[in-house]
Design goal:
3-stranded antiparallel sheet, about 160 residues, globular, 5 helices, single chain, alpha+beta
Length: about 160
C-alpha cells in the first residue's frame, strides 16, 4: 500500500455535497473542519507537521503557511486558495504566490499545477474529498516534487535567509 493511500484512509471522508452558495454549506464546512483537524492530528503524531491553515468566517477563503524540509533546511511559503463556486465538484486551486513564475509546474498567480494527477483523483471522489485531501494529495506531493528542483536551480532561499 502506498504512503499516500494509507494516509488518505485515515483522513475522514466528507458526505455533504454543498458549495458556499448552498444552504447546507454550514454542514459541509463543519465536516471540512473535522477532517482537517484529524489530518493535522495525524501529522503531529507522525512528526510530519508541515502547514498551518485557517479560513475566513464563512469558509470561502483559506490562507496560511506551508513548509518543506529539504536536506535539513526549511523552506516556508504563504499558501492560499478560494473555495470555487462549483465546490465540491471542482477542487480548489492552491496558490503559493511567492513562487509565481519560478517553476513550469505553476499557473499565473502562483497556482500550483495539479491537473494531471490530483484533479482526476478529486473528480472520482466527489463529494468525499475536501480541504484536508487537497493538502495531503495535492500540495504535499507538489512540494515534494518541486522544492528540491527549485533549490537546485537556486530559485528559492531557505526560511532562515528570508528574514
Amino acid at each position: 500500500m502506498s504512503i499516500n493511500k494509507a494516509l488518505v484512509e485515515k483522513i475522514p471522508l466528507l458526505n455533504v455535497r454543498a458549495s458556499p452558495r448552498d444552504a447546507k454549506w454550514v454542514d459541509r464546512l463543519a465536516q471540512e473542519y473535522a477532517s482537517l483537524i484529524k489530518y493535522v492530528q495525524i501529522n503531529k503524531e507522525s512528526d510530519n507537521d508541515w502547514f498551518q491553515i485557517e479560513s475566513n468566517s464563512d469558509g470561502t477563503r483559506w490562507f496560511g503557511k506551508c513548509w518543506f524540509i529539504h536536506e535539513y533546511v526549511k523552506y516556508e511559503f504563504d499558501v492560499q486558495f478560494d473555495i470555487p463556486v462549483a465546490y465540491p465538484t471542482s477542487a480548489p486551486e492552491i496558490e503559493l504566490p511567492e513562487l509565481d513564475g519560478k517553476t513550469s509546474k505553476m499557473y499565473r498567480g502562483g497556482k500550483i499545477c495539479l491537473t494531471d494527477h490530483f484533479y482526476p483523483l478529486w473528480a472520482r471522489n466527489v463529494p468525499h474529498f475536501g480541504v484536508a485531501h487537497a493538502l495531503a494529495l495535492g500540495l504535499g506531493p507538489w512540494l515534494a516534487a518541486e522544492v528540491p528542483d527549485l533549490v537546485k536551480n537556486d530559485k528559492i532561499r531557505p526560511t532562515s535567509e528570508k528574514k
